[in-house]
Amino acid sequence: MSEVPLIRLADVTKVYHLESGDFVALDHVSLDIMENEFVAIMGPSGSGKSTMMNQLGILDVPTSGNLFINGKNVAAMTNLERTHMRRDTIGYIFQNFYLIPLLSAYENVEYPLILKYKRRDTSGKAAAILKSVGFDEKLSAHRPTQLSGGQQQRVAIARALVNDPKILLCDEPTGNLDRKTGFQTMDILTGLHKEGKTVILVTHDPKIAEYAHRTIQLEDGKVVAS
Amino acid sequence: MKDIFFDLSVRSVKLNFMRSLLASIGIVIGVVAISSMGMLGTNMQLIVKNQLTAGINTIVITSDVVRSEPGSFGTPTTGITESELNDIRDMAGTNKVIPIDRTNTQFSIGSNDGRGSIMGLDLTDMKSIMNVSEGSTPRGESDAIVGATIASRFNLKIGTRIKIGEPNISVTRPVVRVVGILPTIGMSSSNGINTDNAIIVSDTWYSAQYGGDKVWDQVNVNLNDVSTLSAVETAIGNKVNRNKEVVRISDASSRVTSVSSTLSSLTTFILAIGSISLLVAATSIFNVMMMSVSERVQEIGILLSIGTEKGEVRRMFLYEAFILGIIGAIIGGIMSIVIGYSVVSAMIGNTAYFFLPESIIYVPAGMLIGVVICVASGVYPAWKASNMDPIEALRAE
To answer: Does the interface predicted TM-score (ipTM) exceed 0.85?
Structure first.
């Protein structure tokens, strides 16, 4: 492990301005995540898990404090730089899979490659990654609506991996799967961690959190254990 | 390179086929309206202009100067004198100079009385500038050729006799015999003389009846080359009018200009009416695009969150508008040719100019305007999509 953390939250606060008043979703959170860690973020609903995910996924910026990812201060980046970092450094795996409904399984996986290289994939990388999650050519031609939940999640994992990101950000990845498929998904994530990925998992399921090597407990926007 | 955003747009259009088709029909109607109205106006312009410019190679010289000839008690005459005619001939060079006598007269065919103009022309001139559709040009002194309107109104045949002058029991009227009938001239007249309602006789017969030998009411100069029009006019004017204005020199160009400009504003006006339908189409495209954006909020959220640039999201929706526009424009373009041709044929009755560039250009122009309007209608929806907050968008169901 390198000395510089892959992700550093320094006194990060996120405040939402609601009609009912300001809501502090993250309250002066400081946290380091090193490369190749397998971290679970846990906490009851409303504890700030989702806000934390949005911060780590650079979908949002802190109200105050600094967030560094891969050595870069997120708040100082332009919109386009943040977009490129989402594309190249982070792979997203969502509870609802969030595949693009108009694209086939193959095209969903190919899509991040097109975003990055601005052309269709001719390297066979998308097909190879799909194969590694058990998708043959025929199955890859299916649209997301024609696939089971477990299959969709495997496509989502393949999509998250295709640009070879350093960080895998998983938001309740087993939340919409039955237990057996859920554990299969976790086995895939464990394998990816072994290959060197930094895996960050948000879950409320202690059984799933057991796969992680470190658990960060959130409560009312504060880290209570890490 | 096949753009995946273009693919996404095509699929979105296919997915919402009915909605997209209806929106495209709006564009079809708009393109057809603009193209066929533009073509209608242009064809009208071209036809009228062509009819008018047929006579533009003719300079018409008339005299309004009233002169009392010295030593004559007769009524003062107007007309172009022989010396003026010679001056005109000098200046006209190789162009044909045709002196014409003309007046209005009553006449009778059998028991029917009528009124029209009677013209006296030199027999040689008549032979060279009049093309009869029936019969021949006069050979004898009392032979006449008649215009198409008179001929059809009085059912004139070759050999019919016409009594010229006011019906008066006490006087025997002179008689001419129809030897030729002219085709319909309409507004166009290649020799500058409208003969539709005229009886044309030899100048000797005319002078014998009406006097005025060596004086003419009108002199036409038929130009070999239209581009010399103003040069010849100036030369004649300088020579004949050198001391004072004795003749008036005119041509059809001013008439052509004024009629053309009237018709061109008419074309603009009907084009404006046509463009209203394109505005309506733009509204429906805008509506469809807004629907497409709001139905795909979550998809937009996914695209943005996994690293799609805003510009790429914008492009996807602009493609969609572009596809709708292209579909509408292609169908509209084809229909414009069919409908435009039918409209021009039905309303003007002459499609000779339909495929000329200045007319048919309205088809690609209408198509282009249709596509541009479509894409322009998609700008705001596309902008709206690309500026969504990915977190909010992902949450949408």
So the answer is: yes
